[in-house]
Design brief:
The chain is α+β, with helices and mostly antiparallel strands. It has a six-stranded antiparallel β-sheet with strand order 3-2-1-6-5-4, with no helix packed on it. The longest helix is centred in the N-terminal third of the chain and has 24 residues. It is globular. The chain starts with a helix and ends in a 43-residue tail after the last strand.
Length: 212
């Protein structure tokens, strides 16, 4: 790819992203639902810009040149839950398997229960020293895994509020970085306790490079 073609592609993609951000900021009535959707879209545009920028991208140079943006399900606020956080009084250190190395330790700090098709489903929440205080981490798979989303599962950061509740928003579910750069990143594998049997059709889809 010549420098001119590469520059034109980047310029085109930046224009598309700018238009998306404008639409997200201006479209629709100023109610809480539209504000929520704009906030999610804005965060997605920011992540695309991060991937495009050679200074901040996690992609290798060849993938940066071919990158056209991340893929997502439509925003659906019905998959955002504010639920009680069942904190474990004495968090246990557990080992979570990695794709390319020995298991690594995480703190199992509690559980959240989300609605399922027939009953509520309990998910394990983890924490590590690399995370910010007041947050938790849920690695999970669901019935979209290996079809519409990455087969190895997705990751979800959640907010642990001072009132004892957690904000569990699956619209913010993301692929692990190893999906985009298996050379520099190593995926943690979701534990059996976090394998949903139903579809969670929100959040990040698998990239085009994994289709087919």
């Amino acid at each position: 790819m010549t420098l001119q073609v590469y520059t034109c592609r980047i310029a085109r993609n930046m224009l598309i992203l700018a238009c998306c951000l404008t639409v997200a900021a201006c479209a629709g009535p100023q109610d809480s639902e539209s504000t929520y959707e704009r906030r999610i879209i804005k965060s997605r545009v920011a992540k695309d810009l991060q991937f495009f920028d050679p200074e901040t991208t996690i992609l290798r140079p060849k993938e940066v040149a071919e990158f056209t943006g991340l893929r997502y399900f439509p925003v659906d606020s019905t998959h955002r839950y504010i639920v009680p956080f069942e904190r474990i009084e004495r968090p246990a250190t557990v080992l979570i398997s990695k794709q390319k190395s020995n298991p690594v330790p995480y703190q199992h700090i509690g559980y959240v229960a989300i609605p399922g098709p027939d009953t509520t489903i309990s998910l394990s929440v983890f924490f590590s020293d690399e995370m910010e205080s007041g947050s938790g981490w849920i690695p999970f798979t669901d019935a979209t895994s290996n079809i519409e989303t990455y087969g190895g599962g997705r990751y979800l950061d959640i907010e642990l509020r001072d009132d004892g509740h957690a904000v569990v928003d699956f619209n913010q579910a993301t692929n692990p970085y190893c999906v985009y750069n298996a050379y520099d990143f190593n995926c943690a594998i979701p534990p059996a306790s976090n394998r949903l049997t139903f579809r969670m059709p929100v959040g990040e889809k698998k990239p085009l490079l994994l289709d087919g």
